[in-house]
């Protein structure tokens, strides 16, 4: 986590990082009607929360009987969501820097293969 924060801090000092983060948090509402968008979003959800499922099962198997499992599951899911959003901001800040350096829009940079 420390290395990820160092990369983000370094990216924030370069031009284009804020443009990338704004691209991450802005939504194109016209694309919400596209079913492919929702399929990709569900894949991303499973990939993001997948590692947390093992932890939830482990906590359920090794905790005492009276442990508040709902609280543990909520904390684990919230932490996973928070780390996912922070990592998304970091990736898009780096994409913003890359698009600024080579002069290509972020949308073209993401789909360039």
Percent of residues in β-strands: under 5%
What is the averaged pLDDT score? 82
* Cα radius of gyration in angstroms: 18 Å
Low-confidence stretches: none
Class inferred from helices and paired strands? mainly alpha
How many strands? 0
State the helicity in percent bands. over 70%
Shape type: flat
Write the element-wise H/E pattern from the N-terminal end onward: HHHHH
Taking the alpha carbons of the first and last residues, their distance comes to 27 Å
Largest sheet: none
Q: How many H/I helices?
A: 5
Question: Could you characterize what this model shows?
Answer:
This protein has a domain at 1-12 and 50-113. 77% of the residues lie in helices and 0% in strands. The chain is built from five helices and no strands. It has helices at 2-12, 17-25, 35-62, 69-102, 106-110. Helix 1 packs parallel to helix 4 and helix 3 (35-62) crosses helix 4 (69-102). The two termini are 27 Å apart.
Brief write-up:
By secondary structure, the protein is an all-alpha fold. It contains five helices and no strands. It is flat.
Helix-strand layout with pairing:
Layout: H1 2-12, H2 17-25, H3 35-62, H4 69-102, H5 106-110
Keywords:
113 residues; mainly alpha; 0% strand
């Amino acid at each position: 986590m420390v290395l990820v924060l160092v990369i983000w801090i370094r990216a924030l000092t370069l031009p284009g990082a804020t443009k990338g983060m704004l691209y991450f948090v802005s939504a194109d509402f016209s694309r919400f009607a596209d079913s492919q968008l929702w399929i990709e979003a569900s894949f991303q959800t499973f990939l993001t929360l997948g590692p947390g499922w093992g932890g939830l099962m482990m906590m359920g198997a090794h905790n005492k009987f009276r442990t508040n499992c709902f609280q543990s599951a909520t904390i684990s899911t919230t932490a996973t969501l928070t780390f996912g959003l922070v990592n998304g901001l970091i990736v898009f800040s780096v994409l913003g820097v890359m698009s600024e350096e080579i002069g290509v829009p972020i949308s073209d940079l993401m789909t360039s293969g």
